[in-house]
Amino acid sequence: MCRLLLLSHSELSKSFYQTMELIMGKPSPKISYLTLPYGQDMDMYQQMVEEQVLESEDEGILILTDLFGGSPFMISTRVYEKYCKKISIEIICGMNLSMVVEVASALKQNLSLDVMKQIALDSGHKGIIDFSELLSNTLPKRKENEK
To answer: What contacts 46, CB < 8 A, 6 or more positions away?
Structure first.
């Protein structure tokens, strides 16, 4: 079973974790999060990310970050470069709650890191819905004279 690490600016990853816990119950100990508060020392933050990655040495780790190009993402890419030859690491940015809940649920199935990554990508995309479009596709079409 791989590990799951949520990284974000401010308290977003903590909020995702807490909301996931509210929806699903007590999460697996294989799921963790790190927040990046304003003013946090980047070297210290990188060290904390490295510690999480090193704990996954035998299992691999899926890292979900909030924003492409943001500090949590950039730190995770540095950690990736440092450890990717000895630890299986996958990074996905743009995490959303649908993604977090689906990956956390799938984590219980002891799936490979590659499968977990695909679940994250698929559920992240499927979790973004244009309600107006959904509504217009499910309601009967109006005739011109009914408008």
So the answer is: 75, 78, 79
Torsion 86-74-24-138 (CA) sign:
negative
pLDDT in tens, 54-88: 999 889 999 999 999 999 999 999 999 999 999 99
Residue 105 pairs in a beta bridge with none
Task: Give the per-residue pLDDT at 117.
Answer: 98
Would you say the C-alpha torsion 82, 100, 24, 47 has a positive or negative sign?
positive
Its pTM stands at 0.91
Report the run of H or E that residue 126 belongs to, with start and end: helix 113-126
Which residues, listed in sequence order, are joined to residue 8 by a DSSP beta bridge? 35
Give how far Cα 118 sits from Cα of 19, 48, 62, 94, 111, Å.
22, 26, 11, 14, 11
Going along the chain from its start, the domains and CATH numbers come out as: 3-141 (3.40.50.510)
